[in-house]
Design a protein that fits this description.
Oligomer: single chain
Shape: globular
Strand content: under 5%
Number of domains: 1
Protein name: Mitochondrial carrier protein
Structural class: mainly alpha
Main location: mitochondrion
Largest sheet: none
CATH topology: Mitochondrial carrier fold
Distance between the termini: 41 Å
Subcellular location: Mitochondrion membrane
Family: Belongs to the mitochondrial carrier (TC 2.A.29) family.
Number of strands: 0
Number of helices: 12
InterPro entries: MCP, MCP_dom_sf, MCP_transmembrane, Mitochondrial_Carrier
Helix content: over 70%
CATH superfamily: Mitochondrial carrier domain
Order of helices and strands: HHHHHHHHHHHH
CATH architecture: Alpha/alpha barrel
Radius of gyration: 20 Å
Length: about 300
């Protein structure tokens, strides 16, 4: 009975809940663009707009939200852990700095790398389920998969039954290779941009809502651009299942065969949709996180002047 009040009374509890709010805001705001990115990466042709038009015409607008249950169900824990792990690592890597002083940009980047590597253990199974659901109505899987999944739970149960625990972590290595450096860029860009847009805010925490949205959006864009080719490879690897003939035997094989078949441009296929989504989603994540944190702590304020 007393767990929740005591949990919320701690700094960890409030950061955990604030991170959850940020994650939910990010998923809801950017999921349709994420579906377009996944379908464009796995296809051999077609722009984001043509895929959007075809998907809506054949399956309806709800198809853009197919598979959202998996990331939405786990996003509170996942996103909260990302911010909490980052906070712990950023202090642990430079214990000489007081709690009132912001960590150096070098420590921010290193803490981001560590955060990305650790959170991949949570993210990899979730993205595997999401990708299988997002692609089951596309040309990529229509001819390769006889089963139609009913939802995230059905996908996870099917993978565990056919492939075991190893199957549910298919793509873990490429996920770590993608997320470790991208999270380093992610937090480093956010801290740099918020300080550039609102000098002194790293110490006083008085940045405007506009600063949160723009800095968060640019952080998301930077993190995706730096790792996008790895994300294309990850999508193609995780789209495979033992029920069909495996096209790729690993990361290097997938990279080689993809480039050989479609050229180096295939590694950047869907980047436009990914960048657009990254700006919207991560602007929402950081804004929701910062606003929730201030509300929970009751000791911060958000400037309203010059905000959007």
């Amino acid at each position: 009975m007393d767990f929740w009040p005591e949990f919320m009374a701690s700094s960890w509890g409030r950061e955990f809940v604030a991170g959850g709010f940020g994650g939910i805001a990010g998923v809801v705001s950017g999921y349709p663009l994420d579906t377009l990115r996944i379908q464009q990466q796995s296809s051999t042709s077609g722009s984001a707009f043509s895929i959007l038009r075809r998907t809506v015409a054949t399956e309806g607008p709800q198809a853009l939200y197919r598979g959202m249950g998996a990331p939405l169900a786990s996003v509170t824990f996942q996103n909260a852990m990302v911010f909490q792990i980052y906070a712990i690592l950023s202090r642990a890597l430079d214990p000489s700095i007081s709690a009132k002083e912001p960590p150096s940009y070098k420590v921010v980047a290193l803490a981001g790398v560590g955060t990305g590597a650790i959170q991949s253990l949570i993210l990899s199974p979730v993205e595997l389920v999401k990708i299988r659901l997002q692609l089951q109505g596309s040309n990529y899987t229509r001819s390769k998969q006889a089963d139609r999944y009913k939802g995230p739970t059905d996908v996870a149960r099917s993978i565990l039954r056919r492939e075991g625990l190893r199957g549910i972590y298919r793509g873990l290595s490429i996920t770590v290779l993608r997320d470790a450096p991208s999270h380093g860029f992610y937090f480093w860009t956010y801290e740099c941009m918020r300080e550039q847009l609102h000098p002194g805010c790293r110490k006083n925490g008085q940045e405007s809502l506009q600063t949160m949205l723009v800095a968060g959006g640019l952080a998301g864009v930077a993190s995706w651009v730096c790792c996008y080719p790895l994300d294309v490879v990850k999508t193609r690897l995780q789209a495979q299942s033992p029920s069909s003939v495996l096209k790729y035997n690993g990361i290097v094989d997938c990279f080689y065969k993809s480039v050989k078949a479609d050229g180096y441009s295939v590694l950047w296929r869907g980047l436009g949709a990914a960048v657009a989504r990254a700006f919207v989603v991560n602007g929402a994540i950081f804004a929701a996180y910062e606003v929730a944190l201030r509300c929970l702590f009751h000791n911060g304020s958000i400037q309203t002047e010059n905000t959007i």
